[in-house]
Amino acid sequence: MITYYDDRSVQVTSTAVRVDGRSYSLAEITMVWHRRGSRSWRVLVGRGALGAALAGPLVAAVLGIGLAVWLHRSPTVTIAIVGASVLVGLAVGPVADFLFEHLDRSYARGSRHLEIWARWRGQPVRLLQTGDALRFGQIYRAVQRAMEHTQPARPTARR
After folding, report:
1. Which segments cross the bilayer (predicted)?
2. How far is CA 6 from CA 113, 116, 155, in A?
3. Assigned CATH for 3-38+112-150
4. Which end of the chain is more exposed for a tag (fewer CB within 10 A), N or C?
């Protein structure tokens, strides 16, 4: 038996697909397909908030420099405002790595619910529903590989 995918709730082997305790024999699966749900606005708003958090200090720094030039104060005051603005802009540095990691994870998870369906014993059955795009892709490809290896080889024509 070959294992194509295995985690705590899904196992795809050369004989069956097991999801949350239910087992579907590959010999009884005739077709596999997937569906994408609608976009999750919650995920998209979260990405926007992360982008704003990354851009906020930089925008504040640029506005501070513009304010310093616009006020036409003494060179000491102008340098102080520009210096404070640059420090605000630099504040994004230590936080940026943390925010970029969360932004990257949000894209790996995806913004839609994804489903894997199969025709099992002649009936359509939803094998899996997940919002994690990376995990979905791994499982869907594992099911495809398992199905490819269980189909009998077609005889070739001899000449």
Report:
1. 44-71, 77-100
2. 21, 16, 33
3. 2.30.29.30
4. C
